[in-house]
Design a protein that fits this description.
Blueprint lengths: L21 E8 L2 H12 L2 E3 L9 E6 L2 E8 L10 E6 L3 H10 L3 E9 L3 E7 L5 E7 L14 E8 L2 H12 L2 E4 L21 E6 L2 E8 L11 E7 L3 H10 L3 E9 L2 E7 L5 E7 L2
Parallel strand pairs: 1-4, 5-8, 9-12, 13-16
Antiparallel strand pairs: 1-5, 2-3, 3-4, 6-7, 7-8, 9-13, 10-11, 11-12, 14-15, 15-16
Length: 281
């Protein structure tokens, strides 16, 4: 799959992410050890603890020694639903947090420092979709893309794309384009199951699509609400979906063909939703 967001190519060193680029994805789970077993078996991830754990137990997932995602453990007793969180790069997390508060969004956590890795904010957009803001220091983002087990794309699923597009455009300076104008980038923005294939927008930086917003109206799952979806690259979507079930997860949307490739939407054993993608070549 062509690179669609700002992480370095395999073999490249750390680079500063362009503000607005999806740079990191992280999951907070109730049972960190069990969820490591699931994703390790599914994606071949290895794990290590990056150091002091001011924010609680946390590990980074790696492939060939390169960071690709993060897994943390929720505070015992907090029965919050688990979900993957997309982090958008920023040069100034504090300024971004203030802007979010003044523009109809909500800041739930931060700004605060995650040791020397960077500075973070956890927020929700005006429609209620949670997302993160990351000001990278020692960790600027995922170090590997384009291989199985790595994040391949990030898409906001909401009721009406136009209702939140202005919020993200003003926050990060995106060029917002209709989805069909970016089909040549092979971004998974058009699915045959979509109830309104016209309510799709792509978020571009420097003429390159980095993420998408998909409005699904009443088809938005009530139990999840607006949310950012992480797509993970896999070698074989059908085999990966079967493996999800074997490991205790569920398949919500069976493998099917889409413009970007073959995909399936699944959950891990705690219910966190993500999409498997075998990208078109």
């Amino acid at each position: 799959m062509t690179e669609v967001w700002g992480s370095p190519r395999p073999g490249a060193g750390e680079i500063r992410q362009a503000p607005g680029s999806p740079c990191w994805t992280s999951l907070l789970a109730h049972d960190l050890e069990a969820i490591q077993d699931f994703y390790g078996a599914l994606f071949g991830w290895a794990f290590y603890s990056p150091g002091p754990r001011r924010l609680g137990p946390y590990v980074r997932a790696t492939i060939d020694g390169r960071d690709v995602a993060g897994l943390g453990e929720l505070t015992p007793g907090r029965r919050l639903p688990t979900a993957w969180t997309t982090y958008l790069a920023s040069d100034d997390a504090d300024e971004a947090a203030e802007w979010i508060r003044c523009s109809g969004g909500t800041v739930g956590v931060g700004p605060l420092s995650a040791e020397d890795a960077g500075r973070l904010v956890l927020a929700s957009d005006p429609a209620g979709a949670p997302f993160g803001v990351w000001q990278g220091q020692k960790l600027t983002g995922a170090q590997l893309t384009g291989v199985p087990g790595t994040p391949a794309w990030h898409e906001l699923v909401t009721r009406r794309a136009s209702a939140v597009a202005g919020f993200y455009r003003a926050l990060f300076g995106y060029d917002v384009k209709p989805a069909d104008a970016a089909r040549s980038s092979r971004s998974p923005v058009d699915s045959p199951a979509d109830p309104d294939p016209g309510d799709h927008l792509t978020l571009q930086l420097d003429g390159r699509p980095v993420a998408a917003i998909r409005g699904v109206g009443a088809a938005l799952p009530r139990e999840r609400g607006p949310h950012w979806m992480t797509y993970f690259e896999v070698a074989d979507t059908d085999a990966a979906a079967l493996r999800v079930v074997e490991l205790g997860g569920r398949v919500l949307d069976p493998p099917h063909e889409a413009p970007a490739g073959r995909m399936a939407t699944v959950t891990d054993p705690e219910g966190a939703v993500f999409t498997l993608l075998r990208a078109s070549r």
